[in-house]
Design brief:
The strands form four sheets. Strands 2, 3, 4, 5, 6, 7, 8 and 9 form an eight-stranded mixed beta sheet that branches. A seven-stranded parallel beta sheet has the order 13-14-12-15-16-11-17, with helices on both faces. By secondary structure, the chain is α/β, with parallel strands linked by helices. Among the domains are: 71 residues; 97 residues, Nucleic acid-binding proteins (OB fold (Dihydrolipoamide Acetyltransferase, E2P), Beta Barrel); 157 residues, P-loop containing nucleotide triphosphate hydrolases (Rossmann fold), CATH 3.40.50.300; 157 residues, 3-Layer(aba) Sandwich (Rossmann fold), CATH 3.40.50. Helix content is 40%, strand content 18%. The radius of gyration is 31 Å and the shape is globular. Helix 7 packs across helix 8, helix 8 packs across helix 24 and helix 20 runs antiparallel to helix 21. It holds the Pfam family RecG_wedge. Belongs to the helicase family. RecG subfamily. One of its GO terms (biological process) is DNA recombination.
Length: 697
């Protein structure tokens, strides 16, 4: 057993009960867990303030002076201990409401103390309540340091006295015995190239930094190492898969040439052509393709997917396209069937509502190979769905599908693993894509098809509602349709946001002459589909909905998107909702409605939406505002298990660490050279299930 696997209860001053609580409340079980529980901030105890300079906007500060006038004031529950600290510039009032008896023994008149606390103003005078204090002795006269602050839990703090300071003391005790066991995990070349602090010194300085410069160097070292090992792991997986997993070769493209020349009624954008070229190169390489295709809403990913499916069909292989909802699957099917029929390609559709008799025929056609392409939902995953030769699997809105579901599709060809194309209209920030999908090849469609007009986005306050309704009326009279999206289904006592049922009634009153649909997540799928279908057929002019339409139908005729209580939505969600309009040739509009009271973040989100239509810029700002935890439905501590790096802020370090990992693997793919022994040894010491390879094992 390694030193860092030692259970925490064996650390001086911890014991069995505390050890159990630290495990339960904070997930700290071993020496390794505790030493990698890095402080989340530091209190600056490097600077002493003069009393005259104190004001309540300051954070926790340090003051040195002579204590005077110590006295008990009041009686019973209102009793408090007060005193004054004087320095050359003035007097600071001190007060303690708790632990008075204990403080009376410690606090003495006419002695010099260092105080640390949050200054406030009371009756025009500076005051500190419950400051930390230490008597000035010769040894402590010039004391100055950055004090680490650790996350803890209410239960540990309130009932077991394990606050940040208690954790600080545990870490200090651990470091005394642990530092000789901290080994260097990076090669000498990397340490030199990136001017990195040594691992043991970094562990000491991250917890108890001597000054801000050493803290910055320790942080850079630990962040670089963490991101380097994540990238190393992903890049090795990618390389190994290319070596071990063969893929069918699709190099014959006669039908594709026919499609280009005779059936494609519009020009592809440069970005679409670039992606198709990437895919064709993958198909000719003889290894399994694993490609992530990112493209904003309406950028033309579906036609790229169809072209990839045509390449498979031209080489005797079948393909399937899986979408997260029946509506979306049906939309893909209807859009592609026109082309498939013209080319003599047999395209099928399989969803939960496909009838049994149709399924039997479809299953047989898949098995005997007469069906070339299949579009569907989760129904494609059923065991009874078997292909003659599945060569390509495509997943739309891939974050809606789990890894297990994806691998189930790959198993539909027992002889050679199918090529994989995963598509998303949710722009993924570059740093997150490099980390979550670093083992995939990434292609981006970053232009809109010709003729598409950018959506005009405006922010309006609730007071302008009548004008907004009048604008909707004018658009409908021009033959267009509108969405009005609400954040809640029913009124909430705790959240003052517009709700759907109330909204539906007010919209019905405002537009008595119009037909209105309502769609929300609590409706049965068939009810939802019925209302959506009415809107698609233009039987209703206005769709009142919740966010269920976020990933949904293509209605080129809808040109207005009104988002109520827009401050309630995240940036990427606002962008997704906006993408429901702007799909036709007409000018489209997105109107963000909100109250006057807006938080700073909410204002940033709305201003960003008004300023730009660029999904990738929006995703980067969203990452900075929200952090990576929320963004892809993955908790930072779950999928990534990050200890210190922050993908929202550490993009530069991530790029450097990825470049370092790529360069290392290019020169020494097996990490067999003696100079890379530290890296090899560190990886070998980790359990096979380790997610974050930078963890101390």
């Amino acid at each position: 057993m390694s030193f860092f696997s030692t259970r925490l209860e064996f650390l001086r001053g911890v014991g069995a009960q505390r050890g159990q609580l630290l495990g339960k409340e904070l997930g700290l079980f071993t020496y390794g867990d505790l030493i990698q529980r890095y402080p989340f901030r530091y209190l600056d105890r490097t600077q002493f303030y003069n009393v005259v300079d104190l004001h309540e906007d300051l954070p926790y500060v340090q003051v040195k002076g002579i204590l005077r006038n110590r006295q008990l004031v009041g009686e019973g529950p209102k009793q408090r201990l007060t005193a004054t600290l004087s320095d050359a510039s003035g007097d600071l009032d001190l007060v303690w409401f708790k632990g008075i008896k204990w403080m009376q023994q410690i606090v003495q008149n006419q002695k010099e103390y260092i105080l640390f606390g949050k200054p406030t103003m009371f009756n025009g005078r500076p005051q500190m309540a419950h400051p930390e204090l230490e008597e000035v002795t010769e040894a402590k006269a010039g004391q100055s340091f950055l004090q680490p602050v650790y996350n803890t839990s209410e239960k540990l703090k309130n009932y077991h006295r394990v606050d940040s300071k208690a954790i600080m003391r545990m870490v200090a005790d651990l470091l005394k015995i642990a530092l000789p066991h901290v080994t260097e995990t990076l090669s000498p070349a990397l340490v030199e190239q990136y001017a990195l602090m040594g691992k043991a010194q970094a562990m000491q300085q991250i917890h108890f930094p001597q000054n801000p410069d050493l803290l910055a160097a320790a942080r850079f070292r630990l962040k670089f190492e963490e991101l380097f090992y994540i990238q190393l792991k992903l890049l090795r997986q990618k390389d190994q898969r290319k070596v071990t997993l063969a893929g069918q070769i699709f190099n014959q493209v006669p039908t594709l040439v026919d499609f280009y020349n005779n059936h494609l009624s519009f020009d592809l954008t440069g970005a679409q052509k670039r992606v198709i070229h990437d895919i064709y190169k993958d198909f000719c390489a003889g290894q399994q393709m694993n490609r992530l295709l990112q493209g904003d809403v309406g950028s033309g990913k579906t036609i790229v997917a169809f072209i990839a499916m045509l390449m498979a069909a031209d080489n005797g292989a079948q393909s399937c396209l899986m979408a997260p909802t029946e509506i979306l699957a049906d939309q893909h099917y209807q859009g592609l069937k026109v082309y498939a029929d013209a080319l003599g390609i047999h395209l099928g559709k399989l969803t939960g509502s496909t009838r049994t008799a149709q399924r039997r025929v479809l299953h047989e056609e898949l098995r005997n190979g007469t069906m070339h392409m299949l579009v569907g939902t989760h129904a494609l995953l059923e065991d009874v769905v078997q292909f003659r030769n599945l060569g390509l699997t495509i997943m739309d809105e891939q974050h809606r599908f789990g890894v297990a579901q994806r691998s189930k599709l790959w198993q539909k060809n027992p002889h050679v693993i199918p090529h994989v194309l995963v598509m998303t209209a949710t722009p993924i920030p570059r740093t997150l894509a490099m980390t979550l999908y670093g083992d995939l090849d990434v292609s981006v469609i970053d232009e809109l098809p010709a003729g598409r007009k950018p959506i005009v986005t405006v922010h309006r306050y609730d007071a302008n509602r009548l004008k907004v309704f009048e604008f909707i009326r004018q658009q409908v009279l021009l033959g267009r349709q509108a969405y009005i999206v609400y954040p809640l289904i029913e009124e909430s006592e705790t959240l003052d946001y517009k709700d759907l049922t109330d909204g539906y009634e007010s919209v019905t009153r405002a537009f008595p002459e119009m037909q209105i649909s309502m769609v929300h997540g609590r409706m049965k799928p068939e009810e939802k589909d019925f209302e959506m279908a009415r809107f698609v057929k233009k039987e209703t002019q206005i769709m009142v909905a919740t966010t269920v339409i976020e990933v949904g139908v293509n209605v080129p005729n809808s040109s207005v998107m009104v988002i109520e209580s827009a401050e309630r939505f995240g940036l990427s969600q606002l962008h997704q909702l906006r993408g429901r309009v702007g799909r036709g040739a007409d000018q489209s509009y997105c109107i963000l409605m909100s109250g006057f009271k807006l938080s700073k973040d909410a204002r940033t989100r709305l201003e960003t939406m008004v300023r730009t239509n660029n999904g990738f810029e929006i995703a980067d700002i969203d990452l900075k505002l929200r952090g990576p935890g929320d963004l892809m439905g993955t908790q930072q501590s779950g999928v990534l298990d990050l200890l210190i790096a922050d993908l929202a802020k550490d993009g530069r370090i991530l790029s450097e660490s990825r470049a370092a990992a790529q360069s290392l693997l290019a020169e020494d793919p097996e990490l067999a050279r003696p100079e890379n022994g530290n890296i090899r040894h560190h990886i070998d010491s980790l359990p096979a299930t380790a997610v974050n390879w930078s963890r101390i094992s």
